Amino acid sequence: MLNPQYEAMLSNKNIIRVLSEFAVQRGKEIGYENVFDYTLGNPSVPVPDSFNQSIIRLIGEKSSMDLHGYSQSLGIAEVRQAVADSLNKRFGMNYTKDNIFMSIGAAGAIAHAVRLVTVPGDEILTFAPFFPEYNPYINMAGAVLKVVPPNTEDFQINFEAFEQMIGLKTMAVLINTPNNPSGIVYSTKTIQRLAEVLKAKSEELGHTIYLISDEPYREIVFSGVDAPFVSRYYDNTICCYSFSKSLSVPGERIGYVAINPACPDAEKMIVMCGQISRGIGHNCPASIIQWAVAENLDVTADISVYEKNMNLLYDALTELGFEVVKPGGTFYIFPKALEEDAVAFCEKGKKYDFIAVPADSFGCPGYIRLSYCIETEKVERSIEALRRFVKEEYGR
Q1: In this structure, are 223 and 242 located in the same domain?
Q2: Residue 148 region, left (φ>0) first, then alpha (ψ -120 to 50), else beta?
Q3: What does each C-alpha distance from 366 to 8, 193, 264, 334, 349 come to in angstroms?
Q4: Neighbours of 42 (CB within 10 A)
Q5: For the segment 205-238, what is each residue's pLDDT rounded down to a tens digit?
Q6: Which domain holds residue 31?
Q7: DSSP assignment of 25-47
């Protein structure tokens, strides 16, 4: 017999992937350059030259076993220390390698974090809008994901609803800043208030409420935006990071878990990550990629392209009468659709080869997500298609 849980998921596929596949198929008909595909968050800027050069040099200098053998279960010790040193230098922390676990991307990091602090039946709260894959990440670990309604005014945290939803079964809160899909960055004020609430509620309930901070877009922050390092504000923070976006290497599947050294049992928790890997198979990221990222921890791809694309889209959307909060980072923008049914809006957009993602599964019905990690020239051409779409379908 097939596993019924996974079999049922076949009829509830990820809408992002479904629309991305549609865009690719449409591209085969008219040329992909003529499809304005805003579906997939796949970094579009080239990998930094230094990363490629690291790979080439490592192949020439290190042994086959160092490059292609299994790493230690927690990750290569020197790499873990290099990550700790970089975080300390940049954010005034005091990590050591014993606070770092190398993971297979941010998804792998979250998989470990959830299992570190919950048992089946425990609850994790997150804030809409949220990345819809949080549902399988958490629910299929045996925990229960509960979603706090959005604050659509600015997409900072809806604290009134949040505090009402915290209960005895709440073991962790999962945040994503900079945020997919809204592009909003939680301010220092927001993070400080969140930390205060978590401290107070932990004392009231008699158990620690952990903060799991999902940070794959940490480096993609736009000019003048307040972007605090979350772990500085709450001792019981588990940082989940990926190099996919900062270095444009999503296919390499490399990230880490960093547990605040001030968290009780921080070092034990990192060792536990090695044991969690035994049960879920998220163990031993590629050794050569661990070595390469260790040499490029303070380097990014040319992420300035994303801010340029954002400004082009933001100006066009506001000119056309969309309600939209200006992103502070990432490569996503999150306007309200021009009708209540965002699914219907996106379906109409297909006629103009303008492919957007409805945000129902992100916890924000009526909104759409545009992932603008595409060439700037294509963004500029897409605006004409958007104008035609809006004029012909909505009379604007």
Answers
A1: yes
A2: beta
A3: 26, 28, 42, 10, 15
A4: 16
A5: 999 999 999 999 999 999 999 999 999 999 999 9
A6: 4-47+301-394
A7: HHHHHH-GGGSEE-------SPP
